[in-house]
Structures are given as structure tokens and as C-alpha cells.
């Protein structure tokens, strides 16, 4: 690995200085955490798959006019991205009740919601990412009202697009999390989609069997975690049926050679 400056290390990714000003390299790890890092583990090959899935999804979103930080994939685990000022808000979009919504409000998991819900959480590990309302965002100046309007519009567009994209491959998009960042052009800033979109931050259920194809398999110790991530990549056409072990093996070999 070349010596380059590490900018930030998160739970699933590392950010390095990019080759040009205003760019970063986003490295996808196999590390997985849940419940605010109280549960930790490794999902073998996850970084490779999430890098590919996120590339695929961000490229598709760009093609319908949703601005994103993605520039291009560099290798198995890295992509070049635009540097943004991360807005400290996790935007969760829900189509079907699951996870914390089911727990908090006692709504049975799998209940189709009569309308899509957007929720906001303050991105702060020490506080456990508490849920917040628009009022808190305005009061503490985490984003302007114009930025929040853009964010909500983009979240709905992403939801509509991804719901269709996954439905076409027999997957129901239950819910997902987005993050946004600010980019500056002189005195003006605009908001673009940042972070990643992968089975780490989405709930994806097989349409026929309701089988979970996402990080809930890790959170809930359901087994078959690696296979679930591979299945999503395979259905998206990113892994050939016999390719998955080749792809993962290649990555393991590279690591062993210290590249
Ligand atoms: P939740 O039901 O636990 O609130 O999660 C909603 C969605 O957001 C789910 O698809 C998983 C994703 N998510 C993250 O990506 N990161 C997080 O820290 C949390 C809590 C959820």
C-alpha cells in the first residue's frame, strides 16, 4: 500500500488524501459493526462487494441527475470521490416497517407503510446517533432550510429509483440510509449524495421468500452473511455466477502479497 495521508477512519471505510485537491480515496473495509459498534465482526469480501455495488448505484443515480461524490472506481476496494463537507445527519428512508421503527412504535416488521417516511438522525457516535426533527437541524444550524429541501427531494428520487432497480431483480427495498455533503464553488455551496449505498446501509428482502439480503443477517446472527451480499451483487449483474470466489480469492491473494 502506498504511503498516503489518512484523513479519517470510520467503522467500515477509510478516507485517504486523493491525487488532486478536492478529491479523496474511499477504501472499503470488511469490518462490520452494529448497534453503535457494540457488536463487531468481519464480513469476508464485503469491502470488495460494497465498492462495486456503491459504484453501480451512484453511477446509475448520476445518470438520472442525482449529483453524487463518486468519480470512479480505482481498484477492488477503492474509489475516487469528491471531497465534501459532510452534513452531520443520517437520512433514513422507509417503505416498509422494520428495525428501529418496528421496535420504537410496535409496528410489525414487514408492514407496508401507507406512505414513505423520511427520518433524520444526528451523526454522533458518542450520543448513539439520536433521532432528530427538522427543528433541531434548523436550531443548531446543521443544515439550512434550502439544503434540507434539496436533501428531502433527492432522498425521494433515490428511493423511487432504487425501489424500481431492486424490484427488477426480485428484491424489495425496505429502508435505507443516506448521507449528504456540501461542495463549494466560490461563495456558493450545493449538496450532493455522499458516503455509500450498499447492503450495509439498506434493508433488502427477497420478494418471493422475504429472505434478508443485507446487514441484518450480521446484526441478528442469521448466518449466510457473505452469501447474502454476493447474491445482491450477482443479481445486479456485478458478479458472474461462478465468479464470486474468484473475485474474493483474488482480493485475498493481493492482501497476502501485501499489495
Ligand atoms: P434502523 O431501523 O436501525 O433505524 O435502520 C434504518 C436503515 O438505516 C437500515 O437500512 C440500516 C440503516 N442504518 C445505517 O446504515 N446505519 C446506522 O447506523 C443505522 C442505525 C441504520
UniProtKB/TrEMBL annotation:
What pathway, per the record?
Answer: Purine metabolism; IMP biosynthesis via de novo pathway; 5-amino-1-(5-phospho-D-ribosyl)imidazole-4-carboxamide from 5-amino-1-(5-phospho-D-ribosyl)imidazole-4-carboxylate: step 1/2
The UniProt catalytic activity note for this protein reads: 5-amino-1-(5-phospho-D-ribosyl)imidazole-4-carboxylate + L-aspartate + ATP = (2S)-2-[5-amino-1-(5-phospho-beta-D-ribosyl)imidazole-4-carboxamido]succinate + ADP + phosphate + 2 H(+)
Q: Does the keyword Transmembrane apply?
A: no
Q: Does the keyword Glycoprotein apply?
A: no
Enzyme nomenclature, EC number: 6.3.2.6
Question: Residue limits of the SAICAR synthetase/ADE2 N-terminal domain?
Answer: 6-235
The record's keywords, sorted A to Z, are: ATP-binding, Ligase, Nucleotide-binding, Purine biosynthesis
> Under which main EC class is this enzyme filed?
ligase
Give TM regions.
none
Q: Name one GO molecular function term.
A: phosphoribosylaminoimidazolesuccinocarboxamide synthase activity
The record's InterPro entries line, in alphabetical order, gives: SAICAR_synt/ADE2_N, SAICAR_synt_PurC, SAICAR_synth, SAICAR_synthetase, SAICAR_synthetase_CS
The family database entries (PANTHER family) matched by this protein are listed as:
MULTIFUNCTIONAL PROTEIN ADE2 (PTHR43599), SI:DKEY-6E2.2 (PTHR43599:SF3)
The entry assigns this protein to a family as follows: Belongs to the SAICAR synthetase family.
State what protein this is by name.
Answer: Phosphoribosylaminoimidazole-succinocarboxamide synthase
Amino acid at each position: 500500500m502506498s504511503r498516503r495521508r489518512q484523513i479519517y477512519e470510520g467503522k467500515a471505510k477509510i478516507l485517504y488524501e486523493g491525487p488532486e485537491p478536492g478529491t479523496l480515496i474511499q477504501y472499503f473495509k470488511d469490518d462490520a459493526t452494529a448497534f453503535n459498534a457494540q457488536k463487531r465482526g468481519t464480513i469476508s469480501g464485503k469491502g470488495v462487494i460494497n465498492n462495486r455495488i456503491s459504484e453501480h448505484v451512484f453511477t446509475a443515480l448520476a445518470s438520472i441527475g442525482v449529483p453524487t461524490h463518486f468519480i470512479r472506481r480505482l481498484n477492488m476496494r477503492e474509489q475516487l470521490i469528491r471531497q465534501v463537507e459532510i452534513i452531520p445527519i443520517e437520512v433514513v428512508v422507509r417503505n416498509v416497517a422494520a428495525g428501529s421503527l418496528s421496535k420504537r412504535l410496535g409496528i410489525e416488521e414487514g408492514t407496508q407503510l401507507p406512505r414513505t417516511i423520511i427520518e433524520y438522525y444526528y451523526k454522533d457516535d458518542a450520543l448513539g446517533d439520536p433521532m432528530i426533527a427538522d427543528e433541531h437541524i434548523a436550531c443548531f444550524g446543521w443544515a439550512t432550510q434550502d439544503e434540507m429541501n434539496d436533501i428531502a427531494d433527492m432522498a425521494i428520487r433515490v428511493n423511487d429509483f432504487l425501489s424500481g432497480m431492486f424490484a427488477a431483480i426480485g428484491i424489495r427495498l425496505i429502508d435505507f440510509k443516506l448521507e449528504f455533503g456540501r461542495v463549494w464553488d466560490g461563495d456558493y455551496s450545493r449538496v450532493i449524495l455522499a458516503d455509500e449505498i450498499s447492503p450495509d446501509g439498506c434493508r433488502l428482502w427477497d420478494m418471493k421468500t422475504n429472505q434478508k439480503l443485507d446487514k441484518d443477517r450480521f446484526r441478528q446472527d442469521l448466518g449466510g452473511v457473505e452469501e447474502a451480499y454476493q447474491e445482491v451483487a450477482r443479481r445486479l449483474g456485478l458478479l458472474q455466477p461462478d465468479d464470486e470466489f474468484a473475485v474474493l480469492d483474488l482480493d485475498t491473494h493481493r492482501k497476502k502479497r501485501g499489495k
